[in-house]
Amino acid sequence: MGAFGVYIHFPYCTQRCPYCDFAIAVRRTIHHQRYLHAITAELAAKQPLFAGRRAVSVYFGGGTPSLWQPDCVAAALQAVLRAFPPPAGLAPEVTLECDPATLEPDTVAALRAAGVNRLSIGAQSFSRRHLQVLGRRHTPEQIPLAVQAARQAGINNLSLDLMIGLLRQRRRELDADLHHLVALAPEHVSLYQLTVEPRTPLGAWVRRGEIQAPDPDKQADAYDHVREFLSGAGYVQYEVSNFARRDSTDLRSRHNSLYWTGGEYLGLGVGAHSFRRLTASGTGERFANQRGLDPYLSLWAPGADKNPPARRPDFELREGAPGLSLYEQRSQDALAREAVWLGLRRIDGISCSSFAAEYGVDPRQAYGAALRAMCERGWLELAGDTLRLTQAGVLFSDEVGAAFL
């Protein structure tokens, strides 16, 4: 069995950002303990699906997981690590996403004591104007304060999110964001282009003509500029949207790497996705929880306020199972195609021989026509045994991936 991780989705937010299409719940009251009961009940029901796995990473995403009481974070983490003990001698990477507006020093210290050793801080921008347009609650001044609180608490692995291609973003504003970011010396940077999702307020504004969508060519120029800037500041791009400090490969996101390398993961919580391999047949299964908070709590913690609590539901992994919005079986060929698409997101690319050993097909032979077409466009290159995106091809990673799906 290969690497395995657990994702815990905490959906609560204080407000919905206009660009956000994630499974969130804007509520005045957060049911901290009830949500913990639901997570642990779901974990107990689904643990047998991943019997014998050992967790190399646990990721708290959202939503805004930094709103969850640290004692609940600690209890959820302990339950996961009891169910899936890490490999001997390996400390699991435990990441928690956070909003700078919610990171008080006492909170960060409590999260560190709970076992969190990596924070993903949603900076997005250091411009007051752009933060307001993005609907973010935090101010530019709260970002360095959050970093300072993390350092003082002993968290030495920080990732900062930066959004580019913002509405009417000027080059000098982007440069100012970059200078502020590298001055904080995060170990990791995740880069996001502002995307107009149809089901969001931003999508509605664009449809009504109230604002103009970001220009794709300008976004591409901004992306190239950021790559060059971060490289000069000592960061290595190891995936299309991710950069780590050059001084250590250990700073690469262990959890996200599971997604790009075909690793298994169990997703717990509202809207969370999971993937498991069926080693006997070489096939796999993907499944996802429903997005609604109330149905999730009703299913997994119906009597959390009672003593004794209500019996947790039985769970059978199948299409139409209670609480699932998605269940699909993935054939060997489908998994191999996904592995090409996801593997090419990594700047190092794919070792064709290693790929053939794992999936039983050499991508140069199985997908030769598609690969040749991408090479002719200048998007892919084959260097010995390695297939990877070119510098120009990184801009077209989605188009390259679509050829294999």
Can you walk through the features of this model?
The chain has 405 residues and is of the alpha/beta class. The protein folds into 2 domains: 4-260, Alpha-Beta Barrel (TIM Barrel), CATH 3.20.20.70; 333-402, Arc Repressor Mutant, subunit A (Orthogonal Bundle). Helices cover 36% and strands 22% of the residues. It has 15 helices and 17 strands. The protein has helices at residues 32-46, 70-83, 105-114, 128-133, 142-152, 171-183, 201-207, 216-232, 254-260, 293-300, 332-343, 352-359, 363-366, 368-376, 397-402, and strands at 4-10, 12-13, 25-26, 55-62, 93-98, 118-124, 158-164, 188-193, 235-239, 242-245, 264-269, 273-278, 283-289, 324-330, 350-351, 380-383, 386-389. The strands form 4 sheets. It has a 9-stranded mixed β-sheet, sandwiched between helices. The protein has a 3-stranded antiparallel β-sheet with strand order 12-13-14. Strands 15-17-16 form a 3-stranded antiparallel β-sheet. Helix 3 crosses helix 5 (142-152). The longest helix has 17 residues, at 216-232. 37% of the residues are buried.
The largest beta-sheet arranges its strands as: 9-10-8-7-6-5-4-1-11
CATH superfamily assignment of the largest domain?
Aldolase class I
Distance between the termini: 25 Å
Derived structural class: alpha/beta
The Cα radius of gyration reads 21 Å
The global form is: globular
What is the number of strand segments?
A: 17
How much is the average pLDDT? 93
Which CATH first-tier class of the largest domain would you pick? Alpha Beta
Uncertain spans: none
* Quaternary class: single chain
